């Protein structure tokens, strides 16, 4: 197969970018021809580059809506697709999802769009919800198939009549297996809490810091991995509330797997999500999860089973796990079991590649 992966940007690590990188690597290793077209105004970072994959930079493809640049991005991406002549275009992220489907349709190349969380999901500004629902109803007609990474997103699209049921299929996100170390001893060490997310909407790191202030005297240490435009407000909050000895900001870090191995609890306080890879990675490392009850999170985090869903109980949930190591071990073990049963990369990859093949085959029969 000759596949183009199209995504809005590759200069910042996120769930969609990791998804594209890992699928592209496996496709290339199996002998398929893979190209990645990306924009975002910056070159792809090293952690997201794969040997054997061709990278094409679109200087006009940006995240923000900009009518003139969006038109130029359409022309540019269309030209690239005509030059590459792939069998299929696999498209990721909202802006690329719009530009890419229009460009693919215009040169008669079949495309599949993966919605890594809808731009019209709950928590997004209502005006933006209405705008993106309208756009998705229009460009959805140009997709041969749309993948949602969780059942919640599939149901959301169906409930708003964004797409017909026969065009949408759920392929749950999956992550590569970790170097899992099960916890088999009880210690009195400081409890390490980890959150891996960019400091931007909708991640809400400040909400987590507010909750931790209520249990300041307990034996925990909070580690934030990620950068972003809202980071300074969290740094300032830590300084103003004398939390500097209990909170560490690591910035962007490529050793997330090692940090997960050393952590005791994983937390994600998002206002909206699809099905975050960060949660699945933490589950693969056998960690109990505390996460916002948004998007498809509840499909991976079973409340009171392998962690807690946040419903106004963030402080209480953290306190319970910090003080009870046996519960952490029990919930962490259950996280690993759920990961192995439903969220492995191999399972996701097999379903995705089968869909690619079926779409190409159906196009050849026309």
TrEMBL record:
<feature type="domain" description="Glycosyl transferase family 1">
    <location>
        <begin position="184"/>
        <end position="337"/>
    </location>
</feature>
<dbReference type="Pfam" id="PF00534">
    <property type="entry name" value="Glycos_transf_1"/>
</dbReference>
<dbReference type="Pfam" id="PF13439">
    <property type="entry name" value="Glyco_transf_4"/>
</dbReference>
<dbReference type="InterPro" id="IPR001296">
    <property type="entry name" value="Glyco_trans_1"/>
</dbReference>
<dbReference type="GO" id="GO:0016757">
    <property type="term" value="F:glycosyltransferase activity"/>
</dbReference>
<protein>
    <submittedName>
        <fullName>Glycosyltransferase involved in cell wall biosynthesis</fullName>
    </submittedName>
</protein>
<dbReference type="InterPro" id="IPR028098">
    <property type="entry name" value="Glyco_trans_4-like_N"/>
</dbReference>
<feature type="domain" description="Glycosyltransferase subfamily 4-like N-terminal">
    <location>
        <begin position="13"/>
        <end position="175"/>
    </location>
</feature>
<keyword id="KW-0808">Transferase</keyword>
């Amino acid at each position: 197969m000759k596949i183009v992966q199209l995504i809005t940007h590759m200069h910042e690590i996120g769930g969609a970018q990791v998804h594209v990188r890992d699928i592209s690597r496996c496709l290339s290793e199996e002998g398929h021809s893979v190209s990645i077209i990306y924009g975002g105004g910056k070159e792809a970072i090293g952690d997201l580059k794969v040997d054997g994959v061709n990278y094409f930079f679109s200087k006009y493809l940006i995240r923000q809506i900009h009518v003139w640049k969006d038109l130029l991005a359409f022309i540019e991406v269309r030209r690239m697709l005509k030059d590459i002549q792939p069998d299929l275009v696999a498209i990721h992220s909202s802006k690329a999802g719009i530009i890419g489907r229009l460009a693919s349709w215009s040169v008669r190349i079949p495309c599949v769009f993966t919605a890594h969380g809808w731009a019209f999901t709950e928590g997004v500004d209502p005006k933006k919800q209405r705008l993106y629902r309208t756009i998705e109803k229009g460009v959805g007609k140009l997709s041969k198939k749309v993948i949602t990474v969780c059942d919640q997103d599939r149901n959301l699209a169906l409930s708003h009549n964004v797409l017909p049921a026969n065009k949408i299929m759920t392929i749950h996100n999956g992550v590569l297996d970790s170097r899992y170390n099960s916890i088999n001893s009880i210690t009195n060490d400081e409890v390490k809490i980890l959150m891996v997310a960019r400091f931007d909407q909708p991640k809400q790191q400040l909400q987590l810091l507010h909750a931790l202030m209520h249990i300041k005297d307990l034996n925990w240490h909070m580690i934030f991995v990620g950068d972003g435009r809202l980071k300074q407000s969290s740094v300032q909050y830590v300084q103003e509330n004398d939390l500097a000895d209990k909170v560490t900001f690591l910035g962007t870090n490529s050793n997330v797997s090692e940090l997960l191995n050393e952590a005791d609890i994983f937390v994600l306080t998002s206002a909206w999500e699809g099905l975050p890879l960060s949660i699945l990675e933490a589950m693969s490392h056998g960690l109990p999860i505390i996460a916002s009850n948004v998007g498809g999170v509840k499909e991976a985090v079973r409340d009171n089973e392998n962690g807690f869903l946040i419903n106004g109980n963030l402080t209480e949930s953290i306190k319970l796990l910090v003080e009870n190591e046996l519960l952490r071990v029990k919930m962490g073990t259950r996280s690993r079991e759920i990961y192995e049963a439903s969220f492995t990369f191999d399972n996701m990859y097999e379903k995705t590649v089968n869909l690619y093949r079926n779409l190409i085959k159906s196009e050849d029969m026309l």
